[in-house]
Amino acid sequence: QVQLVESGGALVQAGGSLRLSCAAAGIAFSIVNMGWYRQAPGKQRELVAVITRGGSTNYADSVKGRFTISRSNAKNTVYLQMNSLKPEDTAPYYCNIGGDYSGSKYYPGDYWGQGTQVTVSS
After folding, report:
1. How far apart are CA 49 and CA 67, in angstroms?
2. Residue 49 has pLDDT above 90, yes or no
3. What span, in angstroms and rounded, lies between the C-alpha atoms of 110 and 90?
4. Exposure string over 98-117, b if 16+ CB within 10 A, otherwise e
5. Residue 4 β-bridge partners
6. CA distance 50 to 96
7. What does the CA dihedral 60, 70, 1, 102 come to, rounded to 10 degrees?
8. How many CB atoms lie within 10 A of CB 32?
9. Contacts of 25 by beta carbon, 8 Å cutoff, 6+ apart
10. How far is CA 55 from the centre of its chain?
11. pLDDT tens digits, residue range 62-120?
12. In what order do the strands lie in the sheet with 18-25?
């Protein structure tokens, strides 16, 4: 069974940084696209960042210039480096694997991490 285990969420002050990690097992990691989503209270799920199997990246406008998605195929892990955090970044963050693009729209895959909570205080 595919399993994604997330870590790295924490309570931080505005302007701080965190790095989220998502370690995968049970899947050919190097050949799938990966993404990070978040869903703040009262908000719909938001795609934060995508890294494709080829290494290209895309970001939500709200995080461009602040967040960086990366992957280590050797470690079967995808990361989200989060800098200059803002209170509006507060949400549980979920990694996802196996998604794909249809045109410019990205559709998530079937596999999700358990979520890791990011809380940014003002």
Report:
1. 8
2. yes
3. 24
4. bbeeeeeebebbebbbebbe
5. 24
6. 9
7. 40
8. 20
9. 2, 3, 5, 76
10. 14
11. 999 999 999 998 999 999 999 999 999 999 999 999 999 999 899 999 999 999 999 99
12. 3-7, 18-25, 77-82, 67-72
pLDDT at 59 over 90: yes
Q: Which two structure tokens, joined as six digits, stand for 91?
A: 């949400």
Angle at 2 between CA 73 and CA 46, to 5 degrees: 80
Encoded amino acid at 1, one letter: Q
Residue 42 in tokens: 């009262």
The first and second tokens of residue 13, run together, are 């002050």
Q: Which residues contact 62 (CB under 8 A, 6 or more apart)?
A: 46, 88
Tell me the residue type at 108. P
Q: What token pair was written down for 14?
A: 């505005």
Question: β-pairing, 11-13 with 116-121?
Answer: parallel
